[in-house]
């Protein structure tokens, strides 16, 4: 037997796989993993079928189909008034996660430090560790999951190479305000720190609030990577297609890494998305109201429950505080209890932390589900 030394010895099976398997074993209602249980737009599926029939089945450009990059640029121009060069500033990737991975690999070196905010997406820290750098975890302030800027100021050092932002935020649904961005700009303006902004839920913003992209601030325009996801926007998470945007200088080093992580995205998927976006601009325009209605339907079912919550500001996740119900249980234990005793599955928020808060009594539920699924979930949770 050869001796094998893992680069990520502490990494096991993700909580998403564990909870989805539990839901399947118990035949429980699954509101854990973040994907819709309703179909993609029929016109989009027709575009994919037509793309394959039309012969778009070979490699595309490594940087992505130009027509799709142009559609991404058009979205930023319309929403943020931001002029992007599709050729030198936008790369299509097979999912947002590999975009995050490539950006970190391109900029961060062994011995560097990267600031991330907990609770955080579980790919950030392992990717940082793989380059020999150190993730610096700063916990967000509960219950609103806001940033303590004094902690950020204290965490920044000569070793800080990158700060990772996630807005709208998974798992909490919180969004960064313009003031948050101003606070970040003030702290890093005289440094060499790069911002990696995970904006995969950019179109899922509720109650008339506004999404601010890192790229919309002139002070961050040439020091930021922005990562997005078509899967989240078009209800096709299994298509694994996303994008990364950066200045030409940052994109050059991104592509140097990305070309060896994955040669190109899936060609017919890119064709389908580009054609659908051009023909159906109403889809993105209506996406916020579409998911807000689902959030409101789910929350309406909880009005008579013992859970405490503030309506999510973005994403398709709702956090519920169960401290009035079973404060004796950790959030992992509460998830097990709900699954086994009430046949409903969620995600414990503590798994998104490096240092799990002992007093955190919050679960994450996905409301990207059919209306009947959400109504049934409300009935179950109100009975507890």
TrEMBL record:
Cofactor(s) the protein needs: pyridoxal 5'-phosphate
Domain (Aminotransferase class I/classII large) ranges: 29-371
Keywords: Aminotransferase, Pyridoxal phosphate, Transferase
A Pfam family the protein falls into: Aminotran_1_2
Leader peptide range in chain numbering: none
SUPFAM superfamilies listed in its UniProt record: PLP-dependent transferases
UniProt xrefs under InterPro entries: Aminotransferase_I/II_large, Kynurenine-oxoglutarate_AT, PyrdxlP-dep_Trfase, PyrdxlP-dep_Trfase_major, PyrdxlP-dep_Trfase_small
One GO molecular-function entry: transaminase activity
The UniProt record lists the keyword Transferase: yes
Protein name as it appears in the record: Methionine aminotransferase
Species name: Acinetobacter portensis
């Amino acid at each position: 037997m050869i001796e094998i030394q893992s680069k990520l010895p502490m990494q096991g099976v993700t909580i998403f796989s564990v909870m989805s398997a539990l839901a399947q074993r118990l035949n429980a209602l699954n509101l854990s993993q973040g994907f819709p249980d309703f179909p993609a737009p029929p016109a989009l599926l027709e575009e994919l079928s037509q793309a394959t029939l039309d012969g778009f089945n070979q490699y595309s450009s490594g940087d992505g189909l130009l027509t799709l990059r142009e559609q991404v640029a058009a979205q930023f121009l319309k929403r943020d008034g931001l002029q992007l060069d599709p050729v030198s500033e936008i790369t299509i990737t097979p999912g947002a996660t590999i975009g995050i991975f490539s950006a970190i690999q391109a900029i961060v070196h062994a011995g560097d430090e990267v600031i991330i905010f907990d609770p955080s997406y579980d790919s950030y820290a392992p990717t940082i560790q793989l380059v020999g750098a150190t993730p610096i975890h700063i916990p967000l302030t509960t219950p609103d999951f806001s940033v303590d800027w004094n902690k950020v100021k204290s965490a920044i050092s000569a070793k800080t190479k990158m700060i990772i932002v996630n807005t709208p935020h998974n798992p909490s649904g919180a969004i960064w305000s313009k003031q948050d961005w101003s606070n970040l700009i003030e702290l890093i303006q005289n440094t060499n720190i790069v911002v990696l902004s995970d904006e995969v839920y950019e179109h899922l913003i509720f109650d008339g609030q506004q999404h601010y992209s890192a790229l919309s601030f002139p002070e961050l325009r040439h020091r930021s990577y922005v990562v997005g996801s078509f899967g989240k926007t078009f209800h096709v998470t299994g298509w694994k297609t996303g994008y990364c945007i950066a200045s030409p200088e940052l994109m050059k080093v991104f592509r140097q890494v990305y070309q060896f992580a994955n040669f190109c995205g899936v060609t017919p998927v890119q064709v389908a998305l580009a054609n659908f976006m051009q023909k159906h601009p109403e889809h993105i325009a209506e996406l916020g109201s579409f998911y807000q209605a689902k959030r409101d339907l789910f929350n309406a079912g909880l009005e008579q429950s013992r859970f405490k919550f503030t309506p999510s500001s973005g994403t398709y996740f709702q956090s519920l505080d169960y401290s009035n119900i079973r404060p004796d249980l950790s959030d992992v234990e509460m998830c097990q209890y709900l699954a086994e005793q009430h046949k409903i599955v969620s995600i414990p928020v503590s798994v998104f932390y490096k240092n799990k808060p002992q007093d955190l009594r919050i679960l994450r539920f996905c409301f990207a589900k059919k209306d009947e699924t959400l109504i049934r979930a409300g009935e179950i949770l109100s009975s507890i």
